[in-house]
Amino acid sequence: MLVEEIVALLRGRLLTDSGCKEVSGFYAGDYLSMVISHAPFGCAWFTVMNNVNVAGVAALAEISLIVICGKSEPDETMLARCDERGISVMITPLDVFAACARVGGYRVGGYIESPDDKPAVK
């Protein structure tokens, strides 16, 4: 999936742009050792964490895009480290569950047929 598609789908905002145009998979979690050992190479990582440790974990796990969920804003040190290491960072007002569901093509109550978030008619 393209980074720009993820940003649009999640009503997000890209804060750092590594130049990576596509992610190879997805991972959600906040337990950092699990992210390091289980996140797929080149993935988008969905998290609520927003401190400098996130940049280190993303670099170790070779993550392409960090998706900070739930209206959380990252600190400047994290953004600077991600920029140095070529990791894209975006924020979304959606919580982790809603963001993952949206990227997966589903929402509670039905399939998303368009990005305008209208519930499916059954």
Annotation, overall tally of beta strands: 7
Number of helices: 5
Helix-strand makeup class? alpha/beta
Sketch the topology as an H/E string, one letter per element: HEEHEHEHEHEE
Q: What topology, given as strand order, has the largest sheet?
A: 1-5-4-3-2
Q: Give the CATH architecture.
A: 3-Layer(aba) Sandwich
Count of structural domains? 1
Weakly predicted, low-confidence segments: 107-115, 118-122
CATH superfamily: HprK N-terminal domain-like
CATH class: Alpha Beta
Report Rg.
Answer: 14 Å
Ends distance? 28 Å
The biggest beta sheet reads: 5 strands, mixed
Brief write-up:
The chain is α/β, with parallel strands linked by helices and 122 residues long. Helices cover 35% and strands 19% of the residues.
Supply database-style keywords.
five-stranded mixed β-sheet; Udp-n-acetylmuramoylalanyl-d-glutamate--2,6- Diaminopimelate Ligase, Chain: A, domain 1; two-stranded antiparallel ribbon; single chain; alpha/beta; 122 residues; 35% helix; disordered C terminus
Strands, helices and their partners?
Blueprint lengths: L2 H7 L3 E4 L9 E3 L3 H7 L5 E4 L4 H10 L3 E4 L7 H10 L2 E4 L4 H9 L1 E2 L2 E2 L11
Helix pairs in contact: 2-3, 3-4
Description:
Helices cover 35% and strands 19% of the residues. The two termini are 28 Å apart. β4, α4 and β5 form a beta-alpha-beta unit. α2 packs parallel to α3 and α3 packs parallel to α4 (76-85). It is globular. The chain has a 5-stranded mixed β-sheet. It has helices spanning 3-9, 32-38, 52-61, 76-85, 96-104, and strands at 13-16, 26-28, 44-47, 65-68, 88-91, 106-107, 110-111. The chain has one domain (3-111): 3-Layer(aba) Sandwich (Udp-n-acetylmuramoylalanyl-d-glutamate--2,6- Diaminopimelate Ligase, Chain: A, domain 1), CATH 3.40.1390. The protein has 5 helices and 7 strands. With 122 residues, it is α/β, with parallel strands linked by helices.
